[in-house]
Amino acid sequence: MKFKIVYDSPGRLRLRCGKDVFPRGCEESLAEAVSQCEGVLSVRATSVNGGILIYYSGDSKRMILDAVSGIKAAELEKRQLTAMQQLDDSFKRSLIKILVRRTAMKLFMPSFLALPVTLLRAIPYIKKALSSLWRGKLTVDVLDAVSISAAIAGGSYSTASSVMTLLKISALLEDYTRSRTKSTLSESLAVNIDKVWKITDGCVESVPTSSVIVGDVIRIGQGSMIPVDGEVTDGEAGVNEAAMTGEALPQHKCKGSVVYAGTVVEEGSIDVKISQLPDESRIGKVVELIENSENLKSQAQTNAERFADSLVPVSLAVSVLTYLFTRNVSKALSVLMVDYSCAIKLSTPICVISAMREAANRSIMVKGGRFLENFALADTIIFDKTGTLTVSCPNLCRIIAFDGYSEDEVLKISACLEEHFPHSVAKAVVRAAELKGIKHREEHAEVEYIVAHGIASQLHGKRALIGSAHFLFDDENVRVTDEQSRIISELGAEYSLIYLAIGEKLAGILCIEDPIRIEAAGVIADLKRRGFKRVLMITGDGEETARSVSEKLGIDRYCARVLPEDKLNIVNAIKEKGRKVVMVGDGINDSPALAAADVSVAMKDASDIARETADITLLSSSLDRLSVLREMSERLFERIRRNYSFITLFNSGLLVLGIAGIIAPAASALLHNMSTMAICASSMRPFLKNDGNDGK
User: Fold this and answer.
1) Residues 391-400: what's their mean pLDDT?
2) DSSP letters for 332-390
3) For a 10 Å CB count at each end of the chain, is N or C smaller?
């Protein structure tokens, strides 16, 4: 690994490898590799700029530099396993261990050890059963323990061992499925800024973010993320608040304006007086809301467990009655060998995992079975607008020309002025000119850029202005006619407007919109056909924009100008009416609502915190995956219901045959286990026909 030394003092080294030299997520592996050098006290690595900060003792500097030089980025990637990979590897190892142990016991264990080994293995099951009975509950654990104990009492140690092996596999599959439903919020999701520029007595110095306190003033320049909530004390800037409010266009911030952690200064520079530290900021409260909602969400038991538990008293009662009426231990044991719960508890997670795997192949990542069930049963779906129903990229969609100028002339002049500046709206204007093949050589004088307002220049001896209504009409006193005012009022209801003025007269209006996804209207119509009775949209945008989008997409109801906590309240209010809610979103501002919904879906390009919070993530940029998911989830639970019916009928048949004395306990156990394996194999079949579309 190549690097340069940017700071060198006794006991402290700072190295710079460059951006993307080692991937994000490999910092810990790199730090661990360097820490193995003698004398190293601590290491901190940052992938953003390839920085490595090393504290050491003694004269081990040369050894440390040699060690860093010998590290290869590819090896770091190999060493870095994701949490899901670790979970998968652990599951595979545990499953192989169970199967190998069972095979070895059958082949090599001496017969005289069969009883003590089987008794030893049975102890945990008996403890669970006694614990359930102590709590006054007759659960599947009790039936498991009785079945194992009865087999041991009857001298059928192999049968008891087979039952315990199947139960272990069942428990392993359940734990694996449950673990996939859980996600941990990344520590760096909200704000990952180590240093800030603090202003003290007119001097600006770089200090650790952890050292600032409420009341300090920090300077935030163009392109930087705002690390705290606060109030602007000086400067002007265009701040991108899309992650917090959903608004796609930069918001003008000046002295007295409030800014929030996690938003980005897209243009300009501002001084901010801190009102809330990072942990207490609005984004910190968003995380707290998510954690609380996750705790509420994780309490439910699966349908399989409830159904299996409900059959326990039946199995025990039938076994006892069989013995009372027949006085035949073999017949009573045959009943106990037929364990409804084993097949139910094993086939259900296999169905779910198969569905999750198939969903992944179709560009849908699902974190657990209950989310598929909730999606199948939901009757209400709520969409965020920006980045979900729209593509969250400003687009020039219409031009209105005045004062003798043509639309192409307005676009040419606007692009010529805007091409000097990198903000999103300027890029949309320049991109529109390129698509129309309009060439624009500079005919204007040097431009004057007024932060978060617009641009001023001279064009053929006349003052040329482009920017916001406030800039042109209030600051520069550009005149507009009554007809122009009427047009502006009509257009402003649907678009964000940029104005071009030449010689103190309005020359044109550029209409900017956040384009609606092409497939959105069709997907919403299809979801309604598939059983969603209510489709809602919630957005931080204004009333007129929200109404326009809703009408175009056939959405039943919308809520405009909502904050993150408002979205959460809306979801909770709908749930209180007894409806099952799906929430689809992409931003930090959607995360509390995502966490509160019965099932939440994040878009492909969603923020990290939205993806971590969501129960389901679309790995495709197309909304049509929602229709695929609805169909798959419905078929999953149709299969589970069919499995329940088959298991109940088949095992009930075994009970009748056992009670009648037609089959022995060993045969009953064998047929039961074979049917369990068969139903599990059947559960792995694909749910949907291969349509040749993976959604990517």
Assistant:
1) 82
2) HHHHHH--HHHHHHHHHHHHHHHHHHHHHHTTEEE--HHHHHHHHH--EEEEEIIIIIB
3) C
